Fold this sequence. Notes:
Strand content: 15-25%
Distance between the termini: 79 Å
Low-confidence stretches: 1-24
Largest sheet: 7 strands, mixed
Helix content: 40-55%
Structural class: alpha/beta
Order of helices and strands: HEHEHEHEEHEHEHEHEHEHEHHE
CATH class of the largest domain: Alpha Beta
Number of strands: 12
Shape: elongated
Number of domains: 2
Radius of gyration: 23 Å
CATH superfamily of the largest domain: Response regulator
CATH topology of the largest domain: Rossmann fold
Amino acid sequence: MRRREFITLLGGAAIAWPLAARAQQMRRIGVLMSGSADDPAALAQISAFAQGLQERGWSVGVNVRIDYRWGAGNVDRFRKYAAELVALAPDVILATAGSIVAALQQASRTVPIVFVTTIDPVGGGLVESLARPGGNATGFSTREFSMFGKSLELLKEIAPRMSRVAVIRDPAVAAGSGGFAAIQTVAPSFGVELTPIGVRTADEIERSIVAFARSGNGGVIVVGPTSSVVQPHRNLIITLATQHRLPAIYTNTIWSKAGGLISYGPDNLDQFRRAASYVDRILKGEKPGDLPVQAPIKYELVINLKTAKALGIEVPPTLLARADEVIE
């Protein structure tokens, strides 16, 4: 081999080696969101997740690649995109709803999964226990079912004359059935009658709310606003509640900031930031089955005074004093 050819070959190898090393260091994360790519709330959530990753040394395009899929509240899309992401052989997948985790586990029982905003992962069969999840999934649960009783208490405080409550929920998920049962348990002590409203189509929601509003002294509780089925109808539900002068409470601050009267629930952005810590630990070799499922550590009470004024409601000063945020 000629000297010039040898030097050229050696130089090429010297260049190729660090490129290969960098390629080996690039890790792959899949993200399957239950919402839509044009939803500001969903974009804020993935931004919080990306921020959490960056704080732990993971930079997109440098040492990690993230593949996003958007389910837009469609269960068939969840299954399709779950299969797509698993086929990409990611090191870990972030999932944003129990139904998404179930779809991912049907596609693979080995790809690690970190979930957020998920209610009752044990009852849903996603993990074996909270302390020792086992299997390939772990993450951050949204809340205990007992917290839905707190929602009724807050709604009664802001609307003391209320005697009827429409509970809007998705009965096909734990948040819907378990949440409604928790409200049923405490409803007699507050002197209210419950009317369940299922969430399947926009027409069904509108017909049910309009029919419910024909009688007076009504209110609304939306159970599991982070549910993949409930989310797409957020603006419709808020608009109908306001139009028919129904005080309503939600379990996610996004709803009150979008015009809902009051919200009480965990800080979901905090869950996405914390999820980055579990993804980081899995990328560094830990197994999801060994990482305990964590409960929310921060709850927020948000009151929209603009909506209260439109409904003719005077919010008690004691409730305002307890609020984490008041929207003027």
